[in-house]
């Protein structure tokens, strides 16, 4: 009898250890290696291990397609209860969700877990550009929209297009009249900017700063935040300071499947909350060019739902579809 009870107790303990969502962890980056999703997963990998929240290294797997659509559909439809798996998302993912680009699934079909950092939109020109301020750019576009070519990594409806369209609209210019060239990514757009093929790049602040430090001949004219950014960007005015109140945060974070239990979700949320509050994490985040944004649990869920609803309204205002893609 005693032996039977002991075996039962050991079995329960083993099950408890097996059920720990932090035992064998995985982060899905919904893109090829090397991009922002990969960076987000690697940040979690380092932070959770350095913070001794996980003992085994987190496995990073890649699932490219549709700025997160393939991974989203896979988790919801095929792995809804994968408690040890987190998936990276970005502001671009939320914008695509708002435009129905994730198929029949919406922002209500996963459990939003944590935001671990953010970047912000930026207006960038070549070092040799005659434009010395966002005011000058907007004055030129207003005078003749055909003479100023904007460009970025993404087609009409993408994050970078939205930044250009919002800035144009704030300056009293109809976004439909602006000349916009879409590139495969921000790197291509920056090359075109330096080569004089486009005049203005609407990209990301931290990413542009890192490119400048790496030797890119560019100037950042304005950032799309409600206040100036710290460090090397402290001298760059906000778009609002220039007279164009445009804000564009580019959040980075994680979600889990819709059938992950409340208990397992709480384990993850608590783990991220613990790590995000440490100075060591601040250093890791800064090294990856992200600015502070730390939300877990209910606050990140509320943030995501609000952002998606805002993006949906924006898409409708610009005449873009918000119906699910087939």
Key structural traits:
ten-stranded mixed sheet, 11 helices, 41% helix, 326 residues
Short description:
The protein is built from 11 helices and 10 strands.
**Rg to the nearest angstrom?**
22 Å
Structural class: alpha/beta
* Range of strand content: 15-25%
Low-confidence stretches: 5-17
Share of helix, binned: 40-55%
Number of helices: 11
N-to-C order of helices and strands: HEHEHEHEHEHEHEHEEHHEH
Q: In total, how many beta strands? A: 10
Q: Whole-number average pLDDT?
A: 90
- Terminal-residue CA separation: 61 Å
General description of the model:
By secondary structure, the protein is α/β, with parallel strands linked by helices. It is built from eleven helices and ten strands. It has helices spanning 2-19, 36-50, 69-77, 91-98, 134-143, 159-170, 186-194, 205-213, 262-276, 279-287, 298-317, and strands at 26-29, 59-62, 85-90, 111-126, 149-153, 179-183, 200-204, 218-223, 249-256, 295-296. Strand 5 (149-153), helix 6 (159-170) and strand 6 (179-183) form a beta-alpha-beta unit.
Chart the SSEs and their pairings.
Blueprint: H1 2-19, E1 26-29, H2 36-50, E2 59-62, H3 69-77, E3 85-90, H4 91-98, E4 111-126, H5 134-143, E5 149-153, H6 159-170, E6 179-183, H7 186-194, E7 200-204, H8 205-213, E8 218-223, E9 249-256, H9 262-276, H10 279-287, E10 295-296, H11 298-317
Parallel strand pairs: 1-2, 1-3, 5-6, 5-7
Antiparallel strand pairs: 3-9, 4-7, 4-8, 4-9, 4-10
């Amino acid at each position: 009898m005693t032996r039977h009870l002991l075996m039962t107790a050991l079995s329960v303990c083993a099950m408890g250890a097996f059920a720990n969502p932090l035992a064998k962890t995985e982060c899905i980056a919904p893109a090829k290696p090397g991009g922002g999703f990969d960076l987000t997963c690697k940040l979690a990998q380092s932070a959770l291990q350095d913070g001794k929240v996980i003992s085994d290294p987190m496995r990073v797997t890649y699932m490219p397609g549709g700025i997160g659509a393939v991974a989203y559909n896979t988790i919801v439809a095929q792995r809804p209860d994968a408690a040890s798996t987190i998936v990276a998302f970005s502001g671009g993912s939320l914008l695509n969700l708002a435009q129905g680009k994730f198929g029949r699934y919406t922002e209500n079909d996963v459990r939003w877990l944590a935001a671990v950092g953010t970047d912000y939109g930026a207006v960038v020109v070549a070092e040799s550009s005659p434009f010395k301020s966002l005011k000058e750019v907007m004055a030129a576009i207003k005078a003749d929209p055909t003479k100023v070519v904007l460009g970025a990594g993404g087609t009409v409806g993408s994050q970078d297009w939205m930044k250009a369209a919002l800035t144009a609209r704030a300056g009293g210019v109809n976004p439909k009249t602006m000349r916009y060239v879409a590139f495969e990514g921000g790197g291509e757009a920056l090359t075109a900017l330096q080569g004089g093929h486009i005049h203005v790049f609407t990209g990301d602040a931290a990413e542009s700063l890192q490119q400048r430090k790496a030797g890119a001949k560019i100037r950042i004219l304005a950032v799309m935040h409600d206040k100036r950014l710290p460090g090397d960007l402290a001298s760059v005015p906000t778009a609002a300071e220039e007279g164009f109140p445009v804000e564009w945060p580019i959040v980075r974070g994680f979600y889990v499947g819709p059938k992950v239990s409340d208990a397992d979700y709480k384990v993850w949320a608590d783990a991220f909350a613990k790590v995000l509050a440490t100075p060591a994490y601040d250093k890791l985040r800064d090294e990856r060019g992200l600015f502070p944004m730390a939300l877990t649990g209910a606050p990140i869920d509320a943030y995501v739902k609000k952002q998606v609803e805002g993006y949906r309204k924006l898409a409708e205002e610009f005449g873009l579809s918000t119906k699910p893609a087939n």
